[in-house]
Amino acid sequence: MTECLRPSWHIRKLRTACFKALNLLKFLAHSSYGSDKRLLLRLYLALIKPKIDCGNEAYGSACPSLLETVQPIKNAALRIATGAFRSSSITSLHTETRMKTLDQHRSLKMLNYYIRLLINPDTHKLQEVRNIPPHLFLSESIIPRPFLLHAMALAEKYHIHFGNAMVEMTTIFFPLRTTGIKACTVMFHVWKFKMGTTAARALFLDHLTSYSQFTFIIREPI
């Protein structure tokens, strides 16, 4: 197998990228800048969490010991954001920040993607993949289970049944006819800060009555 296709290679690259973002959080959390928990948590959600979520459906079937090496990244980010000590309980950190653990979040992401596959009418190979014999990927096997078998095991674990999942209906949108479109420029000279919001709104609504027979595409609210 090519090295870049192994979950271990992806997780190793992931840890390297996340530790760089953690250094930024440590710098901004310094007392001379004034640490703000809400801002630091937003930075975690913007800089680190997308990296962890990227490719989750692919590397989420890796062995548990390998996946556990990603959790300390989130734990460190939460400790930096909340100012907690290293001895603080991980459960209390997730409770205080109202966040799920990576294992819970990973399971949720995989189940969401599994639902997308079920309701997507263009997935022709889904039934063939579901017919893979599960005994080929036992829990003690060194071969990681494919995504679909892992997602089905999660659904069975949480007692979720997808038998009544409705197939997504694809809506066909016809292109707009570009002929006969007119742009009204009468209100271009109206400035709300000069005449006031109330007067500008009344003028606009009065002008709007003269276009009752037209179809509006874009109308900027006043």
List the helices and strands and how they pair.
Layout: H1 7-28, H2 37-53, H3 56-59, H4 64-67, H5 71-82, H6 90-97, H7 102-119, H8 126-130, H9 147-157, H10 192-195, H11 197-208
How would you characterize the overall build of this protein?
Helices cover 53% and strands 0% of the residues. The protein has helices at 7-28, 37-53, 56-59, 64-67, 71-82, 90-97, 102-119, 126-130, 147-157, 192-195, 197-208. The longest helix has 22 residues, at 7-28. The protein has 11 helices and no strands. The chain is an all-alpha fold and 222 residues long.
Largest sheet: none
**Mean pLDDT reading:** 79
H/E series, N to C? Answer: HHHHHHHHHHH
**Which stretches are low in confidence, meaning pLDDT under 50 for 5 or more residues running?**
none
Please tell me what the overall shape is.
flat
**Helix run count:** 11
Give the oligomeric state of the chains in this entry, treating copies of one chain as homo and distinct chains as hetero: single chain
Tally the beta strands.
0
Distance between the termini: 60 Å
Share in β-strands:
under 5%
How helical, in percent, are the residues?
Answer: 40-55%
Please give a quick description of this structure.
The protein is mostly helical and 222 residues long. It has helices at 7-28, 37-53, 56-59, 64-67, 71-82, 90-97, 102-119, 126-130, 147-157, 192-195, 197-208. Helix 1 runs antiparallel to helix 2, helix 1 packs parallel to helix 5 (71-82) and helix 2 packs antiparallel against helix 5 (71-82).
